[in-house]
Amino acid sequence: MALFDLTGKKAIVTGAGRGLGEAIALGLAQAGADVALVTNRTPADKSAAKIAEMGRKAITIQADVGDRTKLPGIVERTVDELGGVDILVNNAGIIRRTPAVEHSYEDWQDVMDVNLNSVFVLCQLAGKHMIAQGSGKIINIASMLSYQGGITVPGYASSKHAVAGLTKALANEWAAKGLQVNAIAPGYMSTDNTEALREDPVRSTQILQRIPAGRWGTSEDLIGPAVFLASSASDYMNGHILAVDGGWLVR
Ligand code: NAP
User: Fold this and answer.
1) How far away, in angstroms, is 141 Cα from ligand 1 center?
2) NADP: is it a keyword of this entry (predicted)?
3) What is the C-alpha to C-alpha distance for residues 96 and 154, in angstroms, rounded to an integer?
4) Among 64, 199, 222, 235, which is least packed by CB within 10 angstroms?
5) Residue 172 Cα, ligand 1 centroid: separation in angstroms?
6) Where are the alpha helices (DSSP H) in 59-98?
């Protein structure tokens, strides 16, 4: 399936040490890509070893993406050590749960720095390389809360609405330059991000009842959509927010 083949492509995946990002990074490597695994606190050495076993290159980059001074180094190291950048997956994200009146400005700012500001700056930095080479694939990880307000997560919902808006804005500017900028909006996936929800018997039952597929998503559920959006199979897709949600949105 040449349409989905990523052989020789160089990918950056943020938040690649665990959860959705780890699965996406391994999935891109399985499809042929060399991968820069960006992590903050979780080492990605095991994933790097698995990618090497597949016969691809992997580098690990430790960086707090909420600190924008660290972002140029991510793209520079990828270009230097992997030889370029063809795919950028902005996956790193945090969530802070408190009612709006108690949501501290610090929480708001932290969420914006990681979930939105890093996405803008990394798109800009990688986008420059991609524009120069006339091709590139950017996949931003959005959320159901790119469409909905959520409950007690005002900063997170605002950041993810903005990720959807940014994805569309960049797609408009860069489609004619050979870049495809799209987003994946995962539904309710079983990762650390949703641990509090899954442990709350009321919320977990409410959530599960609304998912037509009848189960929480897994990290592996994102591999196919990510490979698709990273590959030439999606060359005429621009600014699309692809829900991977077991049907949550259509309920
Ligand atoms: P997770 O299990 O909580 O993992 C969060 C990831 O983000 C980790 O890899 C973490 O890296 C990274 N990260 C957080 N802060 C960072 C920072 N300052 N610098 C660098 N990396 C940082 O979350 P997940 O469920 O895999 O979520 C991944 C993405 O999907 C997020 O954008 C999230 O909002 C989105 N999402 C998740 C769901 C869901 O149901 N799980 C639904 C919709 C959207 P370290 O461990 O190295 O710190």
Assistant:
1) 9
2) no
3) 9
4) 199
5) 27
6) 71-82
Residue with CA nearest ligand 1 atom 23: 193
For residue 232 and ligand 1, the question of a CB distance below 6 A is answered with no
Binding site membership of 182 for ligand 1 (Cβ less than 6 Å): no
Whether residue 234 contacts residue 181, with contact meaning beta carbons closer than 8 Å, is answered with no
pLDDT digits (tens, 9 = 90+) for 22-59: 999 999 999 999 999 999 999 999 999 999 999 999 99
With cut-offs at 50, 70 and 90, classify the pLDDT of residue 1.
confident
What share of the chain has pLDDT > 70, as a percent?
100
Which tens digits make up the pLDDT trace of 231-243? Answer: 999 999 999 999 9
Residue 62 — pLDDT band, cuts 50, 70, 90? very high
Rounded CA separation 81/84 (Å) = 8
Q: Rounded to the nearest whole angstrom, what is the distance from the C-alpha of residue 79 to the centroid of ligand 1?
A: 24
pLDDT tens digits along 211-234:
999 999 999 999 999 999 999 999
Question: Domain 2-243 adopts which CATH fold?
Answer: Rossmann fold (3.40.50)
- Per DSSP, helices labelled H in the chain are 19-30, 45-53, 71-82, 105-112, 118-133, 154-174, 195-199, 201-210, 223-230
Q: For 122, phi and psi rounded to 5 degrees?
A: -65, -35
